[in-house]
């Protein structure tokens, strides 16, 4: 049997805090940045290192496998900074770092 809830007169139900429109938050920005970058540079994306709100959109740092090698620990990866507008359109990208898989940050 379904449970009924009652509200007292003069007491409104609490609503969750406002959130960005569905599909336009950081997850959407990360997915869009990965897909756009893969199409442009032709390399497989490994993941996302950072997503941050930018002036009029998003800045996403995407990690890319640039040179696969055997053993895998010697493969070369790169981090690309991808700028997207509010609608997820790619504005610009640039490679900001290149490194060997498994290498610790200095």
Automatic annotation (TrEMBL):
InterPro entries noted in UniProt: Gas-vesicle_GvpO (IPR008634)
Positions of the UniProt region annotated as Disordered: 1-30
Pfam families documented for this protein: GvpO
Protein name: Gas vesicle protein
GO biological process: gas vesicle organization
Originating species: Streptomyces nitrosporeus
Composition-biased stretches (Basic residues): 7-16
């Amino acid at each position: 049997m379904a449970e009924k809830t009652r509200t007292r007169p003069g007491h409104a139900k609490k609503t969750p805090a406002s959130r960005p429109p569905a599909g336009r938050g950081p997850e959407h920005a990360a997915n869009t940045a990965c897909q756009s970058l893969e199409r442009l540079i032709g390399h497989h994306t490994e993941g996302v290192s950072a997503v941050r709100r930018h002036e009029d959109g998003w800045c996403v740092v995407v990690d890319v496998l640039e040179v696969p090698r055997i053993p895998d620990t010697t493969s070369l990866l790169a981090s690309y900074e991808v700028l997207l507008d509010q609608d997820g359109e790619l504005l610009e990208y640039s490679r900001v770092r290149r490194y060997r898989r498994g290498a610790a940050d200095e």
